Amino acid sequence: MPRAKKSLYIPAVLSREEIDAILAQLSYPNNLMVKMLFGCGLRLFEGLQLRVRDFNFDAGMLTVHGKGKKDRTVPLPESIIQELKTQLKVVGELHEQDLAAGYDGVFLEDVVEKITPTACRSGR
User: CA nearest 109: which of 54, 45, 30?
Assistant: First the structure.
């Protein structure tokens, strides 16, 4: 049986000082996103897909919907929990302002592809 070839790929791991230097260059809210990515070990796309329902502050856990429809839970870093709660409050107030101004609704991924011709004719 042939042996597996050794990978020439060596993963680049940033030191704590390098991470702190990156965070020092970022402003709100981008710095919070990067803290989430590093603190929870998220892939970029996983971080972009986070929703309010994924956060469980009581248990200090985050549900991540990862690649291949594989969900997992990861601990939330205690150092950013208060910052996350503040961000959710700010976004909630912004949403209320939008609703008061007559803006509402959501963007739905792939909704056009899921609508059947029959549903379009019936008004659904």
Answer: 45
**pTM score:** 0.69
CA distance 1 to 113: 47
Per-residue pLDDT of the chain (124 residues; tens, 9 = 90+): 888 788 777 778 888 899 889 999 999 889 999 999 989 989 898 999 999 999 999 999 999 987 777 889 999 999 999 999 999 999 999 989 988 888 877 666 666 656 555 555 545 4
Both tokens assigned to 31:
């710095």
Beta strands 61-65 and 71-75, pairing class: antiparallel
Q: What superfamily does domain 16-122 belong to in CATH?
A: Intergrase catalytic core (1.10.443.10)
Give the separation between CA 22 and CA 29, rounded to whole angstroms.
14
Alpha-carbon distance 112 to 122, whole Å?
15
Neighbours of 49 (CB within 10 A): 14
